[in-house]
Write a structure and sequence with these properties.
By secondary structure, the chain is of the alpha+beta class. Helix content is about 35%, strand content about 20%. The protein has three domains: about 5-160, 2-Layer Sandwich (Nucleotidyltransferase, domain 5), CATH 3.30.420; about 220-430, B family DNA polymerase, palm domain (Palm domain of DNA polymerase, Alpha-Beta Complex); about 445-560, no CATH class. The protein starts with a strand and ends with a helix.
Amino acid sequence: MIMVFYDFEVFKEDWLVVIIDVTNKCEHVIINDPDELERIYKIDDNEIWVGFNSRHYDQYILKGILCGFEPKKINDYIIAKGNPGWKYSSLLRNIKLINYDVMLNNDRGLKSFEGFMGNDIKESSVPFDIDRKLTQDELDETVKYCRHDVEQTIELFLERREEFEASRQLVKIFRLSIESYSKTKAQLVSEICGGLGKRFDDNEFEFPVVPCLKLTKYKYVLDWYKNAKNQDYSEKLETMIAGIPHTLAWGGIHGANKQSTVSGVLLNIDVTAYYPSIQLEYKYGYRNMSKPENFELIHNENLRYKTLGDKKARLPFKIADNSISGQLKDKNSRLYDPLMNNAVCVNGQLMLLMLIEMVEPYVQLIQSNTDGLLVKLKSMDDYDLIDDIVYDWECITGMKMEFELYKKVFQKDVNNYILIDEKGKAKSKGGYVKKLSNIDYDLPIINKALINYMVHDAPVEKTVNECDELKEFQLVSKISSKYFHILHGEEILKEKCIRIFASKCETDAGVKKVSVRTGNPEKISNSPEHCFIFNDEVNGVKAPRKLDKQWYINMANKRLADFGVE
């Protein structure tokens, strides 16, 4: 399998592409030379071309040049006019290209990842709207920055290797063509399940209720869903359940006391692969699948490898399994079926509500979420009792449960909490206490200070003051197309993505972003009043004396207060 990583830069009078062939360990820099591009393209029909946002942009520039079109016109058609590249010309479909995009749907841009990884995020000084031929110096600088972006794409690909490996395994297991690498995970799974793309004329709110459902105390919730006046996705039910404020809507159940800390025998009860399990048990979503047996294989293998503890073998099945139920509500998917989506989501909530009814007399409910409950037992003596009740629920519903014991929970709300077990191991959810990764590394010192306080009872001052690595204090901020530019004081920055650090120097200004809609500057979220910018590589750089560590201590304490910690 030959893989090449590539990135195009397009100007009015010039275009260039940097291609790094990681298989043969060589680089190609092509400037305004369609013949050379065609030669490289024709080396191997089965090459996989890898880029960042290449699904929406670079592949169409490449195909357009091979078709003889002006790349600047395609660029403007996509960027300036906001059109999908495939609509530019039907001739583009004649160019075979296996394109794998490292970008995922919720990504903020390659520069953000470069920032998180601690790499250089300075921008080229060559403007893309330059109205003439580029000079040799300008071409050299553009090649330098283009090469940098390709290298960063390779680094990001390696960080996300599991995503590609999942695609590779799915293509192999289901004997798909190599062109399937060009598809998103959703498109790939839809192909595997034989998505039919049918549209149904039934009322999506008149979903079937699972025959096993038995509600008494909370039957009014089912009645709320069946009431026509509530059959709108903007409607939600606010109610008290088991002494906890809950919100039920058309997506999932959520209930928790805000800003609370609870200690004791805490039992986390999660349904294994809840939504796919509902689909399989009650055959929801099958009417838009021509190959439901493939869905069943994916789901069963996901659970089998989970039981075996084989993470590597499980990976493709886990990713695919999690993708399938989400496509029931995706209008762009050939598995789209909003009635069945409501059947899965609402019945999932109602079955958890049934479990709450069953355990409520014996436990204190701490939290309800989409696929499980967190409860406090009176003592470990009640563990077997709750185990028996949950087993009864499993037999009734056809679902499977997983138990985890904890001793303490710090809870900001249902979407932000940290659970701590007897060995000091923590499980967390939410932006404040999420598990950090090399490609999601924003204000890491704050995250570490909170976790060290909650798990190890370490003062936040200790965590912050003992750290000397500048990267640990970085705030990476990237503006969207809704903003013209970033201001550092009165200075207009050419960068759209910057790395911000709190400063003790009062002469160091703050940062703002200028709105396209109003023309007014707006404060960048979480940014300090006084800051310095460091967009060079920050890995291994020590914190300067002017770094305002007290600002980070204050923010950590403020976030602890959001959890109800005084």
